[in-house]
Amino acid sequence: MILTDIEGTTSSISFVKDVLFPYARRALPGFVAAHRDDPDVRRWLDVVATEHGAICDDAVIVETLQGWIDADRKHTALKALQGMIWSAGYQDADFTAHIYPDAADALRRWHADGETLAVYSSGSVPAQKLFFGHSDAGDLTGLISNWFDTEVGGKREAESYARIADALDAAPAEILFLSDVVEELDAARDAGMRTVLVDRLEDYPQPRDAASANGHTRVTAFDQIDAIR
């Protein structure tokens, strides 16, 4: 059973930073103005308002959310709203989601081999499905059996990975977690999962050495995972 991160693992960090984030930032004011009374949108706007002392002005909420985008804050409300905005971008073919060819090939190969594949990302589950459904390699959603976001918990918390194992009805040791973030891998290992550090030259020009990898198996592409999965 394989659990994978997205940004920096299956896909480039630059696509998220340079395409998706700016698109959401630009679209936020218009999106909130058009959908502020939609219950699914209002729910998340109210979460932001409550967290910041009951903000009443939606314009201030938008400014707060834009600040969170600039700071790359992993907040569930922001991720949910970004996912809704990105949906329009994908549907309008404003962009397709980047995925490394070796990752797309490996996911297809592992699925064909009968491997259960799951995704755990800070992006909302709807955003994850949009990402894999509108990727450079086509619609890959059929390869993924389970999707997890930060509603299950933070990615640097061991308890999150324990909850994921429970949801997958698997012992943690049966799950191989792939990520480019050492602290996430540390948390997964603490929960009993096996781990692989994906250290792509495109995203990390300075390779992580053994000390930086903190004991996690290091690969530079998904085809190197076949020998250890």
TrEMBL record:
NCBIfam families: enolase-ppase, HAD-SF-IA-v1
Record-stated family: Belongs to the HAD-like hydrolase superfamily. MasA/MtnC family.
Cofactor field: Mg(2+)
Domain of life according to the entry: Bacteria
Annotated protein name in UniProt: Enolase-phosphatase E1
UniProt cross-references to Pfam families, sorted A to Z: Hydrolase (PF00702)
Annotated keywords: Amino-acid biosynthesis, Hydrolase, Magnesium, Metal-binding, Methionine biosynthesis
Function summary: Bifunctional enzyme that catalyzes the enolization of 2,3-diketo-5-methylthiopentyl-1-phosphate (DK-MTP-1-P) into the intermediate 2-hydroxy-3-keto-5-methylthiopentenyl-1-phosphate (HK-MTPenyl-1-P), which is then dephosphorylated to form the acireductone 1,2-dihydroxy-3-keto-5-methylthiopentene (DHK-MTPene).
Name of the top EC class for this enzyme: hydrolase
Record-level Gene Ontology MF annotations: acireductone synthase activity
E.C. designation(s): 3.1.3.77
Gene name tied to this protein: mtnC
Tagged with keyword Metal-binding: yes
CC cofactor note: Binds 1 Mg(2+) ion per subunit.
UniProt-listed InterPro entries: Enolase-ppase_E1, HAD-like_sf, HAD-SF_hydro_IA, HAD_sf
Subunit relationships: Monomer.
Known pathway: Amino-acid biosynthesis; L-methionine biosynthesis via salvage pathway; L-methionine from S-methyl-5-thio-alpha-D-ribose 1-phosphate: step 3/6; Amino-acid biosynthesis; L-methionine biosynthesis via salvage pathway; L-methionine from S-methyl-5-thio-alpha-D-ribose 1-phosphate: step 4/6
Reactions performed catalytically: 5-methylsulfanyl-2,3-dioxopentyl phosphate + H2O = 1,2-dihydroxy-5-(methylsulfanyl)pent-1-en-3-one + phosphate
Species in which this protein is naturally found: Luteimonas flava
